[in-house]
Design goal:
alpha/beta; 13 helices; nine-stranded mixed sheet; three-stranded antiparallel sheet; 409 residues; TIM Barrel
């Protein structure tokens, strides 16, 4: 071989390989199908979506609008008509097109559908580039995602013992139980009776668990501002480290008035369906933790904007994670990629005994947190052939007060 050949041939091969790789990465994919699945999985309905491309790469997403899955499915079927043929790499532009493509912008049903599609698009892009989704969001700040758990039993001694078990395994943040009366069966719920009983046992819990425990409670917007104020005033300072969603969120002014009546930090936002809903709660210092739900707020595209906004106001994220493995995987990637993070919600039963019949790949739980994996995309996969159990009608309970009037579930 001549010296000239020796010097140039490898260089040509490298150049050709580089150009081929560049062509592969820059070649436009096209969306070939958007497949919504409103199906029963395990013990609940799930609203999933699979987006397929002409490159053979697919992505999965999940919607968080529980109880209204068929409405979300209808929106996805509508979006499908103009998403087919589009480039999935242009996920930010597609988000804007979906959100702005109707005169009546926004609303929980629309953004729940957009959220699931956005997750699936990020899954595709990560797989295309061969990187986990957190790399698309700026890289990871942490290798393990700390969690907060929730006691499963009724309020009382068993609740305190379960909290001690959590602490023994390294989970120091948790939501304790409260007196929800007959609310889960659609029966009686009297707020004043509930808060009196709950406050008594929360005081005992703090005395038993000590100051190392991070204690919260989720009243699931079942109280009024006056009832919430009374509840907080029944307990010594630092009985609670956070109070989640005590009242409905339609009126920031009501929350703002409540903020002046108690020193307990608030954790608000799991119902918010856009950055605009977060606006007053962040800008006015109403909430101290942002309960972002990535399957409701608008996917990664919208959630990362809320996260940056919250960071500017020294507010940590405390993501809502009540759904299935896709929601968990997406929440783990978001939680890894933001500096302002507290804890991710965990369902201990599902985390410790995951069902891999349908979700064949999932993020791993190490006993006290989620491990941030480096698989391309979301790092979760679904056996589509197992999505065969049809949607089942489910409606949240409709509880009432003693006088017969309806109250919040």
């Amino acid at each position: 071989m001549k010296r000239a050949d020796f010097n140039t041939e490898p260089s040509d091969k490298v150049t050709n390989a580089t150009n081929a790789k560049r062509t592969e990465l820059t070649q436009h994919m096209k969306i070939t199908d958007v497949k919504p699945f409103a199906v029963w999985v395990g013990r609940r309905n799930q609203m999933l979506v699979k987006i397929e491309t002409d490159a053979g790469i697919y992505g999965w997403g999940e919607s968080g609008f529980s109880g209204r899955e068929l409405g979300v499915k209808g929106i996805m079927e509508h979006y499908r008509e103009f998403l087919i043929g589009k480039d999935p790499m242009a996920r930010g532009g597609l988000w804007q097109e979906m959100y702005r493509s109707q005169y009546f912008e926004g609303g929980r049903t629309l953004t729940a559908a957009i959220s699931a599609i956005d997750l699936a698009l990020h899954d595709i892009v990560g797989k295309k580039l061969g990187v986990p989704v957190y790399e698309l969001l700026g890289g990871k700040h942490r290798h393990t995602i700390p969690v907060f758990a929730t006691t499963a039993g009724p309020y009382g001694p068993d609740m305190i013992e379960q909290a001690k078990e959590f602490m023994g395994r390294g989970i120091n943040a948790f939501r304790l139980s409260y007196d929800n009366m007959d609310i889960q069966s659609g029966g009686l719920f009297e707020p004043r009776e509930s808060i009196a009983n709950s406050a008594e046992w929360l005081i005992k819990a703090r005395e038993s668990l000590g100051n190392q425990a991070i204690i919260g409670i989720d009243y699931h917007h079942r109280l009024s501002p006056a009832e919430t104020a009374s509840f907080c005033q029944m307990m010594p300072s630092h009985t609670l480290d956070f109070l989640e969603e005590p009242i409905r969120d339609e009126s920031p002014e009501a929350y703002e008035a409540l903020r002046k009546l108690t020193d307990v930090p608030f954790a608000i936002g799991e119902e918010f369906a856009s950055k605009w809903q977060f606006l007053p709660y962040i800008e006015r210092g109403i909430t101290q933790y942002a309960r972002v739900d990535i399957c409701n707020v608008g996917g990664f595209t919208e959630a990362m904007k809320v996260a940056g906004w919250a960071e500017a106001h020294y507010i940590d994220l405390m993501p809502h994670n009540p759904l299935g493995p896709i929601c968990t995987a997406a929440s783990v990637h978001m939680s890894a990629a933001v500096p302002n993070f507290a804890w991710l919600e965990v369902n201990m039963e599902r985390a410790e005994d995951p069902d891999r019949t349908v979700f064949t790949e999932q993020v791993e739980f190490n006993g006290s947190g989620y491990v941030v994996n480096d698989r391309p995309g979301l790092g979760v996969d679904v056996d589509e052939s197992k999505l065969t159990e049809p949607f089942k009608f489910w409606e949240a309970p409709h509880p009432h007060r003693a006088d017969g009037s309806h109250t919040n579930w």
